[in-house]
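dumping this here before i forget
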Amino acid sequence: MTGRRVAEVGAAMALVCALAGCSGSGEGKDYATPKSLCGVSIDPDLIEPFLPAGKEIEVQKKTPVPSRTRCQVNVDGKVAFVASQEWWERGDTITDVAASHTRIDADKSADSEKYLYSGTGGFGRAGSCTNTEHPEHALFTVAQVFADGHEDAPAMRRLITAYTKSVERSSVCR
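structure:
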């Protein structure tokens, strides 16, 4: 192929990519992946595999009950991902928490006492986290994928581990 032909093919590929909405943050993603989940710092590369293509992203903090804080990530107006911090009775286990989230089949374990995960979600126990508003309770973290076709168990293991450690370092744990 001549130099001119290579340049023409390259220009044509660039045009096709531009028309298709290619961006540096992932195929068809015209938004920036968040660097935090409602105040909890997280590497955007850990969240990115679970987010669909789209134009706009919105992150909403919700507190449906005093013992649960949800960070909902919407892409183009649809729920794509949710990270939660949930206070449970001190004697409850990570298996109890996982059983209450029917959408996630957490069949893999990084440590059966500390983490459970699957391709669509994960659970973590935030170590020795205490909070005066929730004495006698233990803090658990939950990550749930709602975007179809974005299952990735190894990526979820990395995400739930990093998210839980970040929560442990946050002001939630005093």
